[in-house]
Design goal:
about 40% strand, globular, seven-stranded mixed beta sheet, about 160 residues, about 30% helix, alpha+beta
Length: about 160
């Protein structure tokens, strides 16, 4: 319950960001940013994923917390990139302003078997991806939080 409260608290605090369009000064289409991230994940493009991470990116999943591009890149991205496929999101909340953009909602992934006699699994949960504009004006993923449900075998 604590983990869901954290997501709700972060999402609620971020809804104070005013919604803007791409034509407004400095605003970004956060859906496009997330689609870049999801596309890179689904094509297993680790180089592209690294390029989307902020230097000070934070990753939280349950009790796990990684900090910084190097640690997040190695312990989250590369450690799990080959274990899941077909990442999909269902956006529930979104917001942008000139320097921050976020989407939050639910996700699903196909979990690859860990051995030859193991079944494919389905992973689901909640997510929030927070993007910030860096000093050079480039949008980077600054914070990612995932709250997973237990993986279950496909078809169950």
């Amino acid at each position: 319950m604590k983990s869901y409260m954290g997501i709700l608290l972060v999402a609620a605090s971020l809804t104070a960001c005013s919604r803007t369009s791409d034509t407004d000064t400095g605003a970004v289409n956060v859906h496009d940013l997330n689609q870049q991230f999801i596309g890179a994940w689904n094509t297993k493009d680790g180089t592209k994923l690294d390029s989307l991470l902020a230097d000070d990116v934070q990753f939280v999943q349950g009790e796990t917390h990684f900090s910084g591009k190097s640690e997040v890149g190695s312990k989250w991205v590369r450690a799990t990139l080959g274990t899941i496929t077909d990442l999909k999101t269902n956006v529930v909340s979104t917001g942008t302003d000139a320097n921050l953009a976020y989407e939050a909602g639910t996700f699903s992934v196909d979990v690859l078997p860990t051995g030859p006699d193991m079944p494919h699994g389905i992973g689901e949960g909640n997510f929030i991806l927070l993007w910030k504009k860096n000093p050079k004006g480039t949008w980077k993923l600054s914070y990612a939080q995932l709250e997973d449900l237990p993986v279950h075998a496909r078809g169950q």
